């Protein structure tokens, strides 16, 4: 994922897009009022893109463009090989590529991009499990809406007991470094997107949220059972730094780590 923005672009500069065997999905974070796009020598677009609109282009084509107004957008790169691998996992033996589109309103892709922005703004807090889930959601949505290969939905039955147990064991065993959706799905004998949906059917939360809750639970144990500084406890539980630890802990526990520890100890002392 790449964020591109410029307040005073050169309106006459022609930008040649590097060729690649990939699809580019671009979503506008704000209105982009003037843009020109060529495919080969043919001008295929001359106009504006409203906020939340997306465009999909195949970078194997000869593409060039002009940015003629202020813009702020996010670009997702979807290699053709990754799309084929994803479809094969989903049982789709015939690959259908996304349509080339320009300026289609799509709040889903817009909000997926917004969800990822903090992870890239604070590199130390990047959680690969979360990023992988968002990219799987993007692939599923793009294929469902813009290609003739709808991805099978979760049946609502969730994971089998042994699958859920194995997934929880793997997440618990990798609290500090995290574990990928690919590894979790492989251990359960499922595709990545189906596993993610089935896990949420079984637990009510995504694998990433489950990981965050387990990290907070482990932090609580360490906070009550030791006098280690909160910064060390946070890092030991897989948080990138003290602010990251405090923010997630506050959201899930309803109090900051320092307040939670103080209140728990005061109650324990009062009970003696």
UniProtKB/TrEMBL annotation:
GO terms for biological process: positive regulation of metabolic process. Residues 165-263 form the HTH araC/xylS-type domain. The keyword Ribosomal protein does not apply. One of its GO terms (molecular function) is sequence-specific DNA binding. It comes from the Bacteria. It is found in: Cytoplasm. One of its GO terms (cellular component) is cytoplasm. Its main location: cytoplasm. Keywords: DNA-binding, Transcription, Transcription regulation. The keyword Transcription applies. Regulatory protein of the TOL plasmid xyl operons. XylS activates the xylXYZLTEGFJQKIH operon required for the degradation of toluene, m-xylene and p-xylene. This is AraC family transcriptional regulator.
